[in-house]
Fold this sequence. Notes:
Pfam families: DUF3871. The protein is built from 9 helices and 13 strands. It is of the alpha+beta class. It folds into 2 domains: 21-226, no CATH class; 239-350, no CATH class. Strands 3, 6, 7, 8, 9, 10 and 11 form a 7-stranded antiparallel sheet that branches. Strands 1-2 form a two-stranded antiparallel ribbon. The protein has a two-stranded antiparallel sheet with strand order 4-5. Helix 7 packs across helix 8 and helix 8 (302-312) packs antiparallel against helix 9. It is globular and about 65 Å long.
Amino acid sequence: MSSGNFTPGILQQNTGIPKNLEEREDGLRIPSSPPLVTEFQSYPFDKSPFIEANTESVSLSHLKEDCIIPVFSKDNEITLSHQEFIETALSAVSKVFPNEVLDPPEIRVSHSIKGRTPDALHVPAKDLLESQRTNYFERMAFIFRLPGIKDTVSGNELSLTVGGVRAYNNENLYNKKTFEKFKFFIGFQNKVCCNLCVSTDGFLGEIRAMSFLDLEEKILQLISSYNAEKHLSEMKAITDYSLTEKDFAQIVGKSRLYNFLPTRQKQDLPKLLMTDGHISTIAKDYYQDKSFCREPNGDINLWNMYNLFTGANKSSYIDTFLDRGVNAFQFSEGISNVLSHKDSPYSWFLS
């Protein structure tokens, strides 16, 4: 693995407690402002985005300057905003990798929530001035790449990548302020296709935080416990296994059956979070994908199949995207265990 500042095995954290803290009346220490971050330009989309679905690209400055911030309606307490999440993540990453240069953040948003200022109460929508419009995005996902930390799997260059997801629809904004929920990951991005490679060990599906300090500490904990060498080794291991066309067709067929299984039978099987739409995309790309399609004889190795899964996952909504990304890796590892004749519940997909 290439890096100017990387410790093999477990990533080493250089934790530091932010100095800009305020003491609230309830005794909670919170930063008086989120960590400062140098403004980046919009991400240069010379390749496909890491998630597509119904998302659009925005800049950090757009979130900071043009979007309002929701509050908890019962006590009017402000939420931790999307931009503050991004800046807090950047602060944590910079502490662990102080000598690494980060690529500009790629930020994708969806589910725009529109409103208007009080003076525009009776103005027809077509006549609204920009100053009378309000907006925020219900869902947001972002990534930062660390291009100096990289490795190669099956000829594909992977860069260490961190990112997160925030979805206000998971919060009860009609109540009083409570712990807010975030998702965060550290893994790798395949530069060939911009697919994200996320493992269970590099993913926190629910960070519960009341402040920037809570959020940063939990992000630091994940980064420090993530074993990048192990993750890379696991990805390299699946390149040793291939499926015949018959085996691949069996997996596709069983995956379609999976969502309609009786509840009791389904409970005995490992989870597969991909929908019928994802499975159709995987089947199509088995023949058509330029980088990961089948061999001329119909065989496909598990690394390519895994990338078909992560490619199809780009059509997921933001709030399910990371969970399905982790599940794609679990599924590929499970199939590799079947092919290596290990006892595995994933054998149902090939039976």
